[in-house]
Amino acid sequence: xxxxxxxxxxxxxxxxxxxxxxxxxxxxxxxxxxxxxxxxxxxxxxxxxxxxxxxxxxxxxxxxxxxxxxxxxxxxxxxxxxxxxxxxxxxxxxxxxxxxxxxxxxxxxxxxxxxxxxxxxxxxxxxxxxxxxxxxxxxxxxxxxx
Length: 146
What we know:
The chain has about 150 residues and is mainly α. The protein has two domains: about 5-30; about 55-145, Methane Monooxygenase Hydroxylase, Chain G, domain 1, CATH 1.20.58. It contains five helices and no strands. The protein has helices at about 5-30, 35-40, 55-75, 80-100, 105-145. α3 (about 55-75) packs antiparallel against α4 (about 80-100) and α4 (about 80-100) packs antiparallel against α5 (about 105-145). The protein is flat and about 85 Å long.
């Protein structure tokens, strides 16, 4: 039959070891998480560099994120800012196509077409708004002259 006194001595040691093990594991998990989760580093979109350091993926992602911003501005009816963003994205995609003509041609073509269609839609909206503003200006100016 095993000695009960030895079990009583080992029990507290095992509890201390378990506690120490849990503390070490939890601190390891906390301190070695990606820095973004601690709020020390903010995630940002990559910016294409003209010195040849960036990759075509960086250029495409930059154009994609700018397009997403423009889509948000368009849905909130901020047409001027949306048009600026779409033009930047279109320019980036054109540079991407010129610099890396063999890189993911179908994807670049699709995204370029999407941005171009949005720019055409915005130009139609701006033309309608300009016509509407001219008509309303004529109506108000005719009322003041009579």
